[in-house]
Write a structure and sequence with these properties.
The complex is a heterodimer of chains A (494) and B (300).
Chain A (H helix, E strand, L loop, with lengths): L1 H4 L21 H15 L5 E6 L5 H11 L5 E6 L6 H13 L8 H17 L3 E6 L7 H10 L10 E7 L1 H7 L5 H4 L2 E7 L5 H14 L9 H10 L5 H17 L7 H12 L17 H18 L6 H8 L39 H19 L22 H13 L6 E8 L2 E8 H8 L3 H18 L11 H16 L1
Parallel strand pairs in A: 1-4, 1-5, 2-3, 3-4
Antiparallel strand pairs in A: 6-7
Helix pairs in contact in A: 2-3, 4-5, 6-15, 9-10, 10-12, 11-12, 18-19
Chain B lengths: L3 H18 L3 H14 L4 H13 L3 H14 L4 H13 L3 H14 L4 H13 L3 H14 L5 H12 L3 H14 L4 H14 L2 H14 L4 H13 L3 H14 L4 H17 L3 H17 L4 H11 L2
């Protein structure tokens, strides 16, 4: 093994959860884990928060906290997508804590069940810990509901601890003055940062090597500087990856040490690659396709014979010549990492209509948050355009709160179909219609030149995607065509 | 006179036609719903309707359909696998896992359920749990390729290079033309710096899928790394001719052009590079590599 070449007794830079490798290494992550564990085990805290940017180790921290807690003392639930409705969230939590599917549908029943569960757990001499990862995805309304959940604590001690981990957005939300009630219940508040300087990266690298049994310096100073640079200025996961590949290269080439040149070469190398291809999910069984095919053919035949005509050969041929894949169900396919993601034209789910939020206080706060968030969204930084949400009211007599929440989701998804200006553009032998929604033109009026260029670019890319005939010829440079479309859009923006 | 069950079946077949042969999902939904109205025990209709809702990402409706299927066929592991999958799509991984475990109770060797549990563990970030579960699945299904490939991808994601290579090779022992295993092995060998092997694996991909833009892009990156810029440009352009929206190839091509521009400053070329980079930004506004090159270009 490569690490043996370097006189180490275990791999020093594996990107897998390993508590023994985190001591003194990534200080902010280590303290986030230690403080949260203390908050749960000793501090009897109500809420613990961990924030940090993508890729800095929040999920791994949660995993290490869960693995470190005594399973006999805690009942734990881990929610990885809190963006679901509060009722679903509560069902998920109860389901995990009890180990059985929760079928309660009404919020009031769910809250009662949860409360009962807290006391049952206490009677067993245990405590409940709820981990919510990606907590930045919690809707403002759910955040308020979670606050109400924390009211279910005893005067003397807390019945459960909730650990919220999320991106910096979560911090912004929690620190909002309107959430002072929630904020004051936070017992520990940790932030995971990058490893901030080449000097700290050096400490990190050397500590991990030491933990793996290393006794000599392997990475030169310029190698450490290069590690810092190529890891997006200190992202631990990237440091580990590049350092590991450097050690492997060192073994292959019989180096005595790793210098900056080696690290630079490796750092540059993997930046150019696409990500690994992942497996598609297996097809799931639909109706019996063989039988169905026969039935459809029979049905088609019946129709033709009823009207006294022979069934045309081509119809039969069409049915029978269909490839097997045509009978495979519309597949739940896991996204393939190598696919290019192109932004959709209209994404903005807010604002939520007033009528659907049950508690008035929540509703008011919600509106403020929505306004706060919408005002940010108006700036088309990512050239994503807004469309207004139609004024739709929730069904007056929703059968239960779940239905109300469902109605809310439907409403937020509804978008008005925009009309706009249509320009014709001739490209080669094709003439295409370029439709620019009025709302986008309107938005462009209030944007800076730079923002308008971005908006036009994004719209042009979508138009190009919708007109693949423009780019079938390998001779035409698609970037040039995109540029032409963008110019037309920009002219409309004025 | 047809009875209700027969009419339900006819509606179902109509729905199936709209679902698959003559796609119109609204009409398919309507027909399936009608068939359920006529016969609320018609499992196939619930299943197919559930799939349409899944595709539409209407998980609540999908959940209702597959819950009904479980109620109708409580002994069918497939019903639980489908229900679990809805939970998984909702990112309710623990619930998904509980449901998959029920499928496994009914059918202890059910490979799909075993794999699904492993994937739910992966979603939770339980690396060791997922590895163990994949290993169990492989042990119970010696000839199957899927569990080995899934384990290889898990290792790959966690940068466990040697383990990933070993498992991808195990996949290729069983299926030498497995495109993704060949592709991912090519990628791994590029990262390790063994270009000879990387090229060999990418060429195996291209034999099966000559139109793989990603593979051409990655081949280009190898040529670039060994200093054969002409070949690299050809490969990147090939990638772009196959997929106009292949961001990496645009960035790689722009970077080579930028390197050329630095030694031979030319404003026309500069504008072309900027336009290409802006095109990428129109697809991916925060692409760090693009922003970096643009920043450098602005300083020239």
């Amino acid at each position: 093994m490569y690490y043996e070449y370097w006189n180490l007794n275990k791999p020093p830079f594996d990107n897998v959860p390993d508590p023994s490798m985190y001591v003194d290494c990534h200080a902010s992550m280590e303290s986030a884990i230690a403080e949260t564990l203390f908050g749960i085990e000793e501090g009897d805290e109500c809420i613990a928060v961990i924030v940090g940017d993508v890729g800095l180790g929040k999920t791994m921290s949660i995993r290490m906290i869960i693995d470190s807690l005594d399973q006999d003392k805690y009942r734990m639930a881990l929610v990885t997508n809190p963006g679901i409705s509060f009722i679903q969230l509560l069902r998920e939590i109860i389901g995990q804590l009890t180990g059985t599917q929760c079928t309660e549908k009404r919020k009031v029943d769910l809250l009662e069940t949860f409360n009962k569960l807290l006391f049952e757990t206490l009677d067993e001499g245990k405590r409940v810990v709820i981990f919510i990862d990606e907590a930045n995805a919690i809707t403002p309304a759910n955040l308020e509901s979670l606050r109400l959940l924390t009211n279910m604590q005893q005067d003397q001690n807390n019945l459960f601890t909730m650990v919220l981990a999320g991106q910096i957005e979560l911090a912004r939300r929690l620190e909002h003055p309107k959430r002072a009630n929630l904020f004051q219940r936070i017992g520990t508040y940790s932030r995971i940062d990058k490893i901030e300087s080449p000097e700290l990266v050096k400490t990190y690298v050397e500590t991990r090597l030491k933990h793996a049994g290393g006794t000599t310096e392997i990475f030169s100073d310029d190698a450490v500087t290069a590690l810092y640079e190529h890891s997006e200025q200190g992202v631990p996961r990237l440091i580990n990856k590049i350092a590991k590949l450097s050690l492997k290269a060192g073994e292959t080439n019989h180096f005595d040490a790793i210098n900056g040149e080696v690290v630079n070469q490796i750092g540059e190398r993997f930046k150019r690659l696409t990500r690994p291809a992942v497996g598609k999910r297996r097809p799931r069984k639909k109706a019996d396709e063989t039988v169905l095919r026969e039935e459809i053919r029979d049905a088609a035949y019946d129709r033709y014979t009823i009207v006294g005509e022979m069934m045309p050969e081509e119809s039969d041929a069409e049915l029978t010549s269909l490839p097997e894949e045509a009978f495979v169900p519309a597949e739940p396919v896991e996204e393939v990492a190598t696919e290019v993601a192109v932004p959709e034209l209209t994404i903005i789910e807010e604002p939520v209509p007033e009528t659907v939020t049950p508690e008035e206080t929540v509703e008011e706060e919600e509106k403020e948050v929505v306004q706060e968030e919408a005002s940010e969204a108006i700036i088309p930084e990512s050239a994503v355009f807004e469309e207004p949400v139609p004024e739709v009211t929730a069904p007056a007599e929703a059968a239960d709160e779940e239905e109300k929440e469902a109605a809310q989701e439907v409403i937020s998804e509804k978008m008005v179909k925009q009309e706009g200006v249509i320009e014709k553009l001739e490209i080669g032998k094709y003439v295409i219609d370029i439709e620019i929604p009025y709302i986008v033109i309107e938005q462009a009026k209030y944007s800076t030149r730079e923002q308008r260029v971005k908006m036009a670019g994004s719209l042009a890319a979508q138009i190009l995607k919708k007109n693949p005939q423009l780019i079938v010829s390998h001779v035409d440079d698609p970037v040039h065509i995109w540029g032409e479309i963008r110019t037309v859009v920009l002219n409309q923006f004025g | 006179m047809m009875n209700a069950k027969q009419r339900a079946r006819e509606c179902f077949i109509r729905g199936y036609r709209y679902d698959t042969l003559d796609p119109d999902s609204d009409k398919a939904v309507e027909a399936y719903r009608e068939s359920i109205k006529l016969d609320d025990t018609l499992t196939d209709a619930y299943v197919n309707l559930g799939f349409i809702y899944l595709k539409r990402e209407n998980y609540d409706e999908a959940l209702k359909c597959f819950e009904k299927v479980v109620a109708l066929e409580p002994d069918n592991p497939e019903a639980y696998n489908n229900l679990g999958y809805v939970y998984e799509r909702m990112d309710r991984s623990r619930s998904a896992k509980q449901i998959y475990e029920k499928a496994l109770e009914l059918s202890p060797d059910n490979m799909e359920a075993m794999l699904n549990i492993a994937q739910a563990l992966e979603l939770e970030g339980d690396y060791y749990g997922a590895v163990e579960q994949y290993r169990k699945t492989i042990a119970a299904n010696r000839d199957a390729v899927a569990p080995i490939f899934c384990l290889a991808v898990l290792y790959d994601r966690y940068d466990m290079f040697d383990e990933a290579i070993q498992e991808y090779e195990n996949v290729l022992d069983r299926d030498p033309t497995h495109v993704k295993a060949n592709f991912n092995l090519g990628n791994l060998y590029v990262q390790i710096g063994d270009y000879r092997k990387a090229i060999a694996y990418f060429e195996r991909v291209l034999k099966v899928q000559p139109d793989s833009a990603e593979t051409w892009n990655n081949l280009g990156s190898i040529y670039e790394d060994i200093g054969d810029y002409e070949e690299a440009v050809t490969a990147y352009q090939r990638a772009l001719s196959l997929n106009t929206f292949q961001e990496e190839a645009h960035v790689n091509l722009a970077r080579i052009q930028y390197a050329y521009y630095r030694s031979n400053p030319d404003n026309v070329l500069k504008e072309k590079i900027i336009q290409r980079l802006n095109f990428v930004l129109s697809l991916s506004p925060h692409n760090k590599k693009v922003l970096q090159i643009l920043e450098e270009l602005a300083e020239t």
